[in-house]
Amino acid sequence: NKIYKILMILTAHQPTYLPWLGLFHKIALADKFCFFDDVQYQPKDWNNRNKIKFSNGKENWLSVPVKRTNYLEKSYLDIEINNEVKWQKKHFKSIVSNYSKSEYYDLYIDEINQFYNKDWELLVDLNYEMLIFFLKKLGITTQVIRMRDFEFKGKKSDLVLNMCLQLEADTYIFGALGKNYAKKDIFLEKNVSLFFQNYVHPSYKQLHGHFIENLSIIDLLLNCGPNSLSILMTENINKEDLIKHIN
What we know:
Elements: E1 9-13, H1 21-29, E2 32-35, E3 49-53, E4 59-63, H2 87-99, H3 105-117, H4 123-138, E5 143-146, H5 156-166, E6 171-174, H6 184-189, E7 193-196, H7 217-224, H8 228-233, H9 239-246
Parallel strand pairs: 1-2, 1-6, 2-5, 6-7
Antiparallel strand pairs: 3-4
């Protein structure tokens, strides 16, 4: 019997609103997840918007409006929500009208409603609290830490490596796009193994016609409830197999 060395697997991601399934798979594989909140804000990305499925069978965006004054120079930590736009009422109404017939709607809707009844000033706080909520509902117990509590140095690949060294991680999980910028040789020199996630999107029971993938986790959760974690892991590497792969 081969003895596997004990690893400390780390991954990270920028704050996103109502994240997609692939993020939760990546977090489930790790021992620690760093909420990468102290980097430059990326407009037209996923940090303030995501997609749900409407009752007409089409996907549609839910976007949190942000104050745009100098926002391209700001860190995620400083991005303010524009509450002059009544986005909360609109978003919750969209969730209710498009998911009220889903099997697990009654199980989660009151808790989801709390996010749309609370006053949020900063986008990062909304995204963080929502992430913790979804992790809890999925049953993912990975430790979550925040970038703002550390002083990681460098940019892109160097920043990730510095984070790994400070947190004493010997394995780092990149998303698929990490292959485009990860300096693999330098990680190996520092004895940090790399794994590049290649998420295979599962199909599941979904309302309103033909199946649409890459929607918010809210679509899976309201349709599939307590089975959501096993569904999002389907046909994807699990933690046990990842440890074998790295060893």
